[in-house]
Amino acid sequence: MGADVSAPPAVSAASAASSASSASASASAAATAYRRDADGTFHNPVSEPKTGFWKTVGLFWDVMFRKPAGTAPSGTQAVPVQPLTLAQLQAAPDRTLYRLGHSTILLKLQGRFFLTDPVFSERASPFSFAGPKRFHAPPIALEDLPELEAVILSHDHYDHLDQATVKALAPKVRHFLTPLGVGKRLIDWGVPAEKVQQLDWWQSSAVNGITFTATPAQHFSGRTPWDRNSTLWASWVMELPDLRIFFSGDTGYFDGFKAIGERFGGFDLTLMETGAYDPRWPYVHMQPEQTLQAHLDLRGRRLMPIHNGTFDLAMHRWQDPFERILSLARLRSVEVVTPVMGAPVDIRQPAPTQAWWQGPV
């Protein structure tokens, strides 16, 4: 298979600079260990405050029937997309990244392609006729994607794990890397079991010379009202000898970011959830202020805000995540990368990007 799953903690020599720092990282890791019930249900290290029945009903009502104006593009506000072809991808230099939408990121590393949380369907929903609809088409058709060395999945929510996309991609994917339990969903959908690796927090897998580590996140899982938290959620670290990338998946702000930053010693690029936030659900999605702080905790060099610009999943204006994170980042001298969907990004030395959400580029 060309991949090796190692027991936690698996870190590079560069990450473990001394026995003292390793001990500190181990302590931090223990502080961010989930709890699991006898029935297999996962729980975050810090218990989530319970939401009352009527508060839940009110929240559902607002999201479904009381959306404010501007949560999705309208009129001349079309999200720009730079079309991609297979030939362009094959000719692209190594260490190029493409944002395809929401949390779907295509990376070219070590001459191979890797894809995070692929969602190509029209809706992030169990239904083809209802649910959050895409603002824009993917920059490349699903059937035109290259052979993929690995697909990396953060959790099983519909805007991150799309059954139709996974089933279509499976023949051209060598490895699926998932948190615990998520891989079983793939196998149940017909993905060959030998392609699937399920990792616990702090567990690593080496694929094509790249070490992928499933790291903690503060979120939840489930695809029906009856299977909440039956699978694990995770963020991911992608580690080469001279390059480190962090992919947040979905998460609220928590101490785990500091633990990850301590263990891995910083990141060249952080792909950070910045969108679908609301004061009523701070536990599972970060406000932009928290996204920036998480990036600093991780010791990130550059920040790319993701989880925005594709689906209407909250009550804020669709442009707000970009505007707020940029405003906050300027105050802390943090470099933010906001490429047009489909535009190539040099991971090590990205060119300046435009505020495309403000109008035509």
How would you sum up this structure in a few lines?
It is built from eight helices and 17 strands. The chain has 361 residues and is of the alpha/beta class.
Question: What does this molecule look like?
Answer:
By secondary structure, this protein is α/β, with parallel strands linked by helices. 21% of the residues lie in helices and 22% in strands. It has eight helices and 17 strands. The protein has helices at residues 19-31, 53-65, 86-91, 163-169, 182-188, 256-264, 288-297, 320-331; strands at residues 3-6, 35-36, 42-43, 96-101, 104-109, 112-116, 148-152, 173-179, 196-199, 204-207, 210-215, 235-240, 243-247, 267-273, 300-306, 335-336, 344-346. It has an eight-stranded mixed beta sheet, with helices on one face. Helix 4 links the parallel strand 7 (148-152) and strand 8 (173-179). It is globular, with a radius of gyration of 19 Å. 44% of the residues are buried. The model is unreliable at 1-27 (pLDDT under 50).
